[in-house]
Design a protein that fits this description.
It contains 19 helices and 23 strands. The protein has about 550 residues and is of the alpha/beta class. Strands 1, 2, 3, 4, 5, 6, 12, 13, 14, 15, 16 and 17 form a twelve-stranded mixed sheet that branches. The protein has a four-stranded mixed sheet with strand order 18-20-21-19. The chain is globular, with a radius of gyration of 23 Å.
């Protein structure tokens, strides 16, 4: 059966029953039908207060992965299976995941609800509109854009230079046609003609702000601090100067609260926030993670794409801002994907090939090395395929052991929590061991360019960084403006540890090009764009939308 067929055959229980397992009462929930709910602001504040005390919060387990390939890795599936597996062995475990974006759902990557018998449900709702968070973020973002252009049209008291407006509109779809446009064409009453841009919602600063804000007051302060452009005196203009912050925050008053759903095995899952890790910071919201830490003894969360992207940003941005630290890291790998990193074509992956596996292991080794730089022990979860041979499994176990880790076979896709029991035992033991000595990769006081260089040379294994165009000057300007202590968020391809998607395996010694930088003063980080990465993806030649349909009863098919 397909993932959606498995999910549709599952009989869900009311989400209030699931929430009760972790001490959340019906009064603490705002229901979105019987199977989806948001926690109330009052309950969220209680969770934040409890999680602020390290002695009262659970152990945080981060799930990340090797560099993705067309062979598949299964990070969300392993995360969900691990959460169910921990409960199978008697642990009070809670899962905290991101919300799926519509872009990949109708594009190529798929959703974010796991797969097989390690899924969260209702998967159709979660993958599509869910509770409306991403729609609210899109509208809030575009309200800011509309207010900026209206201010310019209606006399421009702040003297905003239209040529300097940096705020982009957004839509939660892959629509390359909107990357670069000219807006305001027509009559004088139709606006001021200017170059304009769109990005996908999950890469927007408002998405980052939602994921990093703890309260509506925090949210409003961050929105006010957004730099939207410059005036004719070349001074920065912040959105707060338009005096419309409250209106934008009003659109986000519900979106800031975490959602709760269930796994196929009726276990609790917080799902909230959805930034991509290749073009944004790639983690679910701090509020969702704090809620999970306040209600579970073990919290399984994930960061997008591979350890060079999502995990680095989780450590250097989310943990720094949230005051949290992981007790263990799980790196998801498949033997198929590692053989592909070893040079094997996708059509030949079912053929045993220990030499290619050994060569491809260099990619996993690079990620193991990267995680060690944050002082956190790592376990390798080997997402098992039927074509994996005993020799290949034995070799991977040996290579992991030689590199200070342990490889554990997991079969969450086919067996749910039962297929992740051994992984759960090993991960719980590592999390309980006290071996984690977490620290960020760089200090706040390091200059912005040196922060980028440290990530590029130590995590991406580049020989040096080349700042192109005005990128370095802009970084120095940000520092002069008082933003030098912010963390950095590098936007680059997910298909390689480097900036070049063609460099598979473990590339080293290349020059890492930073073509531009952007200040997210509201979110609280600086974005560096490397290589050809775009913040508005495009659709593939044969998008997933070709397979999706719905019948007269409203039953969806073809959604993975």
């Amino acid at each position: 059966m397909t993932d959606i067929e498995i999910a549709q055959k599952n009989v869900m229980v009311p989400v209030a029953e699931v929430a009760a397992k972790i001490g959340i009462s019906q009064e603490d929930l705002e229901m979105y039908g019987p199977y989806k709910a948001k926690i109330t602001m009052k309950k969220l504040r209680e969770f934040q207060a409890k999680a602020s005390d390290p002695s009262k919060r659970g152990k945080l387990i981060l799930v990340t992965a090797i560099t993705p390939t067309p062979a598949g890795e299964g990070k969300s599936t392993v995360s969900i299976g691990l959460g169910d597996g921990l409960r199978k062995i008697g642990k009070n475990a809670v899962i905290a995941l991101r919300e799926p974006s519509l872009g990949p759902c109708f594009g190529v990557k798929g959703g974010a609800c796991g797969g097989g018998y390690a899924q969260i449900v209702p998967m159709e709702d979660i993958n599509l509109h869910f509770t409306g968070d991403i729609h609210a973020i899109s509208i809030a973002n575009n309200l800011i854009a509309a207010l900026i252009d209206n201010h310019i049209q209606q006399g421009n008291q702040l003297g905003i230079d239209p040529r300097t407006v940096t705020w982009k509109r957004c839509v939660d779809l892959n629509d390359r046609q909107l990357r670069n446009i000219v807006s305001g064409l027509g009559a004088r009453t139709d606006g001021t003609p200017r170059e304009d841009h769109f990005q996908i919602t999950v890469a927007s600063e408002i998405m980052a702000i939602i994921c990093l804000s703890r309260s509506i007051s925090d949210l409003k302060e961050r929105i006010s601090n957004i730099i939207i452009g410059k005036n004719y005196n070349r001074q920065d203009v912040k959105f707060g100067e338009l005096k419309c912050t409250g209106a934008v925050a009003a659109l986000l008053k519900d979106a800031i609260r975490p959602n709760i759903v269930q796994t196929l095995e009726k276990n609790p899952v917080f799902v909230h926030g959805g930034p991509f890790a290749n073009i944004a910071h790639g983690c679910n919201s701090i509020n969702a993670t704090l809620s999970a830490l306040a209600t579970g003894d073990y919290v399984v969360t994930e960061a997008g794409f591979a350890a060079d992207l999502g995990a680095e940003k989780f450590m250097d941005i989310k943990c720094r801002v949230g005051g949290i630290a992981p007790s263990a890291v799980v790196i998801v790998a498949t033997i198929r994907a590692l053989k592909m990193h070893g040079g094997v074509a996708k059509t030949e992956l079912s053929t045993p090939n220990t030499e290619a596996l050994k060569k491809g292991f260099e990619n996993l080794k690079a990620h193991l090395d990267n995680i060690s730089k944050f002082g956190v022990p790592a376990v390798v979860a080997v997402n098992k395929f039927i074509t994996d041979t005993d020799d290949e499994i034995a070799l991977l176990e040996k290579l992991c052991k030689e590199n200070g880790s342990v490889a554990v076979l997991t079969e969450g896709w086919g067996k749910g929590g039962d297929g992740a029991i051994e992984l759960a035992k090993v991960v719980a033991e590592v999390a309980d061991s006290g071996k984690a000595n977490f620290h960020c990769l760089y200090e706040d006081d390091l200059s912005l360019d040196k922060k980028i260089e440290k990530i590029a040379t130590e995590i991406y294994h580049a020989s040096r960084v080349e700042f192109q165009g005005s990128a370095l000057k802009k970084l120095k300007d940000y520092e002069a403006m008082g933003y030098g202590k912010l963390p950095v968020c590098i936007a680059k391809t997910q298909n390689s540890i480097s900036h070049d998607p063609k460099l598979i395996g473990s590339p080293r010694g290349y020059v890492f090009p930073v073509r531009d930088v952007q200040l997210y003063s509201g979110a609280g980080f600086v974005v560096a764009l490397a290589g050809d990465i775009m913040t508005m993806p495009g659709l593939p030649k044969a998008p997933a939308a070709l397979e999706i349909d719905v019948d007269d009863d409203g039953v969806i098919s073809g959604l993975f």
